[in-house]
Specification:
There is one protein chain. With 325 residues, this protein is mainly α. It has a single domain (3-322), classed as Orthogonal Bundle (Cytochrome p450). Helix content is 49%, strand content 11%. It has helices at 3-18, 35-55, 66-95, 106-113, 117-147, 150-163, 173-177, 180-191, 227-230, 275-292, and strands spanning 198-199, 202-205, 210-212, 215-217, 222-225, 293-297, 303-306, 309-313, 318-322. The strands form four sheets. A three-stranded antiparallel sheet has the order 1-8-7. Helix 3 (66-95) packs across helix 4 and helix 5 (117-147) packs parallel to helix 10. The radius of gyration is 21 Å and the shape is globular. The protein starts with a helix and ends with a strand. The site of protoporphyrin IX containing FE has 22 residues, from helix 5 and helix 10. Protoporphyrin IX containing FE (HEM) binds at residues 14, 126-127, 130-131, 134-135, 138, 199, 202, 264-268, 270-274, 277-278. GO terms for molecular function: heme binding; iron ion binding; monooxygenase activity; oxidoreductase activity, acting on paired donors, with incorporation or reduction of molecular oxygen. InterPro entries: CYP11_CYP27_families (IPR050479), Cyt_P450 (IPR001128), Cyt_P450_E_grp-I (IPR002401), Cyt_P450_sf (IPR036396).
């Protein structure tokens, strides 16, 4: 399994949410020039290069650098795709007799309540841009951690076997709510510094002068809350260098964790808009996969690399073994 295959799965579900369309990313014969493949590549390109344009010296402000030119072409492509699908959703909405809002898809609800179509385009663009690469990177990392931690994978399997004795049982929120170890494992993957995926920090521009830890910081300065660091600080987390999912469970055996030490989805008014969607997708995928299959990894350890997230670099060459029960 490659990260790219996980990317295609995520693209299909995000397309359904943000553009109201099945993008067809799961077609095994996608050609390089197909729309789904181009969307995947464009989303990756946008997210992985934005930091270079934002944080390095902005030559692009003075002349169109190659990166800037390609970035703009990329965004133009996205706008074209989003416009096409949102326009189609608008046409479908015109023909629908709406009795209950629950009959509408997310995009249709926005269009029904938002007279300005531009808002729907922007929302769809935002969701598809940030929704694809984030979840796939997280899933790659979580699966790699499970495959290389057999004891903990077994614990997760035992939990899943208890909650869903019949692996074909459709999942629902009541069942997912009981999966305490699964959620704890995911949270620990987000927290753990050395081999896990996550956002490096959350940035904010100060709206007014502030004093933080004795430092006077003027209005307008950008500050970053470095969640990558705080999640590994002894004063906030016991034994931070150990990978212990149990620290997140109700019966946490005395492990402490400061509620702000690890904020994978940020915090406050600008926290991640897709967090519930991301959590749900990750939980469903893990529950379905680990209930029925065992993952093993018998190759050189993968290195973690910073793109815009911290995630494993290379092929996930798992041995996937079907479980008997
Ligand atoms: C594991 C997956 C994901 C992680 C770790 C993640 C993480 C984050 C973080 C750290 C932020 C900044 C929050 C802050 O500054 O306080 C953010 C913002 C955002 N995320 Fe996510 N995200 C994920 C998946 C998604 C998905 C699937 C979507 C869309 C469907 C999404 C949509 C957004 C949007 C729209 C924002 C900007 C919110 C705003 O500025 O008001 N994210 N995300």
């Amino acid at each position: 399994m490659k990260c790219l295959e996980i990317l295609t799965m995520k693209s299909t579900s995000i397309g359904r949410v943000s553009l109201d369309v099945r993008l067809g990313c799961l077609d095994p014969n996608l050609s390089e020039n197909s729309e789904p493949q181009k969307i995947i590549e464009a989303a990756k390109y946008a997210l992985r290069n934005v930091a270079i344009l934002e944080l390095k010296f902005p030559f692009w402000r003075y002349f169109p650098t190659p990166l800037w030119t390609r970035y703009v072409e990329n965004m133009d492509y996205f706008i074209k795709i989003c416009t096409k699908h949102i326009d189609a959703a608008m046409e479908r909405l015109k023909l629908k007799t709406v009795i209950d809002e629950n009959d509408l898809s997310l995009v249709e609800r926005i269009l029904a309540n938002e007279p300005n179509q531009k808002t729907a385009y922007i929302l769809a663009l935002d969701l598809i841009l940030v929704g694809i690469d984030t979840i796939s990177m997280a899933v790659c990392s979580i699966l790699y951690q499970l495959a290389t931690r057999p004891e903990q994978q077994e614990k997760l399997y035992q939990e899943l076997k208890r909650i869903i004795p019949n692996p074909n049982t459709p999942l629902n929120t009541k069942l997912l709510d009981q999966m305490e170890y699964l959620k704890a494992f995911v949270k620990e993957v987000f927290r753990y510094q050395f081999t896990t995926c996550r956002i490096i920090g959350n940035g904010r521009t100060l709206q007014q002068d502030a004093v933080i830890q004795g430092y006077r910081i003027p209005k307008g300065v950008q500050v970053v809350f470095p969640t990558l660091i705080t999640g590994s600080m002894e004063e906030f987390v016991n034994q931070p260098e150990e990978f212990i999912p149990e620290r997140w469970m109700k019966k946490s055996d005395g492990y402490k964790i400061h509620p702000f030490a690890s904020l994978p989805y940020g915090y406050g008014a600008r926290m991640c808009l897709g967090r519930r969607f991301a959590d749900l997708e990750i939980q469903v995928l893990l529950a379905k996969l680990i209930r029925s299959y065992k993952l093993e990894y018998h190759h050189e350890p993968l290195e973690y690399k910073v793109t815009f997230m911290y995630a494993p670099d290379g092929e996930l060459r798992f041995k996937v073994i079907k479980r008997d029960e």
